[in-house]
Predict the structure.
Amino acid sequence: MLEALKIEPTHKTPKVYLDPKENHFEVSGRSIPEDSVGFYKRILDWIDEYANQPNPETEFKFELEYFNTSSSKNILELLKKLEKIHLEGKGKIHITWYYDEDDEDMEETGEDYKALLNVPLDLIMKVY
Amino acid sequence: MMIMSTSQPTETEKKEGPLAFSYECYKDMLDNNIIFAYRGIVTSDLVTNVLEIMEERLEEEGQSKKISKKVFNVMVECLTNVYVDEDKLFKEGYDPSALLLVAKGSNSYKVTTGNYIPTKGVNSLKLMIDRINSMDKEELKTYYQEILCMEEPDMNGLTNLAIIDLARKSKNKLTYTFKYENNKYTFFTLESQISKSGV
Amino acid sequence: MTYSYYKNMQVNNIIFVYQGEVTAELVSSILHMMENKLDGDGEDKKIKKKVFNVMVECLQNVYHHLDTLEVSVDDTEVNDRTALLMIGKEEKDYYVITGNHVLNERVAALRSRLEKVNSCDKNELKNLYQSILNDGELSEKGTAGLGMIDIARKSGQKLGYDFHPVSDKYSFFSLEAKIARY
């Protein structure tokens, strides 16, 4: 089984926790790095590996606080890779996009992704 | 401006410089409702710090979480898109610093960035912003999704995607100025306005 | 307008300027930002610490001045509770400028205290500091005096200041502390 990818969060980059063994897939926090391509490359490469032998069911969770448009393109790439696994029937993918009840921008972003992708994606509002 | 004499006149009696400018600066910021101004290199550490400062300030003002969040989102986008070729500007004798102004009017918050851009890029940037300003909410959404799928994820600077994003998040027209310096560089300012009513 | 701000900041070597009410939380956020900024500039640890300490003390001083204004809350002629914080980096120094309203009746006392502090050399400042501290009278006045001496000691340079008359009641008091970069 593919080794887990775990990246600790910083003020500018999200927590990344991708663990096939625990069946836990999460990207959460802030994503505002100067070099978003550099940051996401590791994650995208990991997903490419994971696509070779994905779990039968993958529950992928996004819980972002802030992010910028340069990250948004990389996240779309990530989502497209997940979509591919799903569409090729290699494994079932389910994506959950969490957003703060006060953050309509993050909600809109989730809606944008939902409109662009052909993969189950649920938007869930976090209420405090 | 009134300058008091002291026993160390050479050290304190200045008619120029930041001390002499301080009252004028205060008054001007007060009159224009400017909360703060930063001039320097924009790093993601700075973005984080500026967010922290604004979080405190907005909380103190009792601003609703929804509007606060919007102000933060717009600030993040503005700041992460100030792209300045620092080394090049510096070498050519220009100030590589960017400017960030945050102001609070009676009905809105305003986030403005300013920086030098190559003069040759001015026309296309202007056309792009004008085009985005002419779009309504739905058009912006469609256009955003279209560009999101098209643009390569390694582009630097104020991309079309970022401008659309700013227009969508702020829900107001973007205001810009171009201050022509010479054939090489122009000072570009971009202002996003977030209404306190949320619309 | 934005361009003129840029130019003004450029001419005066301003990094950051804040106008508004000053709260402890806000101060800590601003300090945090400057810490990162100094780090980013690769500034010497010792200088960093000094700039930081002077900023803390200057802001403390603003608090103190604003406290003395508490009696005049009904006053609307000036926005008397807001202050200015300006931080800049010049060729040889960092500078921290604070600005706040003070009652005109306090200007003379403040000025004479500043003159006194500026007339002292390093050792005299130290003695002055210790004698005030020893007096144990940390009255409202005493604390302010101590703060100013402390700023002067930490800065290692003469304090700059300016009183700008605003009305019959108020002046705007600007205080500048410099920290040598080398």
About this structure: Chain A has a mean pLDDT of 94. Residues 5-126 of chain A form one domain. The interface with chain B takes residues 11-12, 30, 32-34, 36-37, 40, 66-70, 72-74, 76-77, 100, 102-106, 108, 112, 115-116 of chain A (CB under 8 Å).
